[in-house]
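Per reviewer request, we include the raw input and output of the structure prediction for the construct analysed in the revised manuscript.
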Amino acid sequence: MDEQGPPGRPPDDEETSRDLSRCQRDCLVVGWCSFLIAACATMLFFAWVDPLALADVTDLPLPVDRMGGYAIGFFFFWLITAASALLTVYLIRTRHGHPPARD
């Protein structure tokens, strides 16, 4: 008989195969946090700015409707917040040597 955990719980060998590496966890955290912040930034920004008015001010090569403007704005905010979060993770995870000794 195979040793299985409680019902509804995978066996131990499957559980260890689901562990993520540190880099994978960092990427998932950056992606999820930046997604949430981008959603909030999109809601706040477009509460005051109409995407059609913004499209009229800029010279976009393609016509943009209101939903397209929301999508472009969301992905812009997501890109900016992901870059910020990636830089933060990089600076936290990067090991620096000891400062040089002063004579």
